[in-house]
Write a structure and sequence with these properties.
Length: about 375
């Protein structure tokens, strides 16, 4: 029988603190708490979607019940507690989805279970996902148990919307803020998956997927699977930008060169080509703003590290940044920002972008005219 396909986000879900991607500040703190026996009884994991909140909650639950912790405070994966957890049969871990179980009755059922001590291992762990979805009555029913739970009970609350959680809950929890995962960490992880699965992938293709995922590893894995389904076992930059509908760097480099040299015909023809390829004008102007910002970042050696692109694209940025004056880039950014703000209100949105592009292309000429006037006035 053919093996059933498992999505990468599940197949390569981290099983130990060491394998969690991009959240070292949290995994280190949790490992130290386990090692020094300083575990809180209630945790709140908050952050954007797909950054590892539920994954870390599960790893924490597995590790604190392990009978033979390794030297670096990881679960052994061999003891009875670990094997029952891995097979999904552990009676010590309860997961509740607050999005669909948000009533007082659901919380009361949970509280009734909390009183019973674990049969195997030392702790019972209750993971409540999307906890901000609980009704206010359910939150109030939960307060007393959260403040004074039995010694064996640990609560891990996970949420994407921390601001919706009442202060009385926040004050009873140790709060861990998960970061958006860095671009390099995501592309390295995708590279590892590609290598393991026998897929050849260009670095630039993986970086584009990582960029589009906007800090979420789960989103990146889903896109990666989609690209492999489309392009087979060879992921190229070209197929990724075509299928993820991403505007190529080259368009922005080309249009910026034309703007800087007052080549208005190239600017307008290139913009028309972008629209013909199905891209939205607002999407283009936002991308151009990001491109100009990247060129400004390249102007100073101290800020080059803020540029999240591959090495060969970084060289292109450095080259173009030298050709454009800082004054030109700053004024262009101002025009792009105004266009971005007024785009939605405009009746003729294409014209709105074209006016902005023409204004930028005449910036250098205007500054040269101003310089000439100044010289003439000084001579007079």
């Amino acid at each position: 029988m053919e093996e059933r396909f498992v999505v990468s986000a599940r197949k390569y879900r981290p099983q130990t603190f060491e394998t969690v991607v991009g959240q070292q500040h949290i995994t280190t703190t949790l490992k130290n708490a386990i090692k020094n026996n300083h575990l809180a009884q209630a945790f709140l994991f908050c952050g954007p979607r797909g950054v590892g909140k539920t994954t870390c909650a599960r790893i924490l639950a597995k590790t604190i019940n392990c009978f033979n912790l390794t030297a670096d405070t990881e679960a052994c994966d061999k003891c009875e507690s670990c094997t029952s957890f891995n097979s999904g049969q552990s009676l010590n871990v309860f997961e509740l989805d607050a999005a669909s179980n948000n009533s007082v009755e659901d919380i009361r059922n949970l509280i009734d279970q909390v009183r019973f001590a674990p049969q195997l291992g030392s702790h019972k762990v209750y993971i409540i996902d999307e906890v901000h979805m609980l009704s206010s009555a359910a939150f109030n029913a939960f307060l007393k148990t959260l403040e004074e739970p039995p010694k064996h009970a640990i609560f891990i609350l996970a949420t994407t919307e921390k601001h919706k959680i009442i202060p009385t809950i926040l004050s009873r929890c140790q709060i861990f803020d998960f970061n958006r995962i860095k671009l390099d960490d995501i592309s390295n992880h995708l590279g590892y998956i590609a290598k393991t699965e026998g897929i050849t992938a260009e670095d630039e293709a993986l970086r584009i997927i990582a960029q589009k995922a906007d800090g979420g590893l789960r989103d990146a894995c889903s896109m990666f699977d989609q690209m492999v389904s489309f392009g087979g076992n060879n992921l190229t930059y070209k197929t990724v930008i075509e299928n993820l509908h991403v505007l190529d760097y080259d368009y922005y480099f080309k249009i910026t060169d034309a703007l800087n040299t007052q080549d208005t015909s190239t600017v307008l023809v290139t913009f028309n080509e972008i629209l013909d390829n199905g891209f939205d004008g607002h999407h283009f102007i936002a991308g151009l703003g990001e491109h100009i910002r990247n060129l400004l970042v390249c102007k100073d050696a101290a800020t080059i590290q803020l540029l999240e692109v591959s090495e060969n694209v970084k060289q292109k940025y450095l080259q173009q940044a030298q050709a454009c004056s800082t004054q030109f880039l700053l004024k262009a950014l101002g025009i792009i920002n105004r266009c971005d703000i007024s785009y939605k209100a405009a009746k003729n949105q294409r014209l709105q972008v074209e006016i902005a592009l023409l204004q930028i292309s005449y910036l250098n000429a205007a500054s040269m005219d101003a310089e000439k006037k100044k010289i003439v006035q000084n001579q007079a």
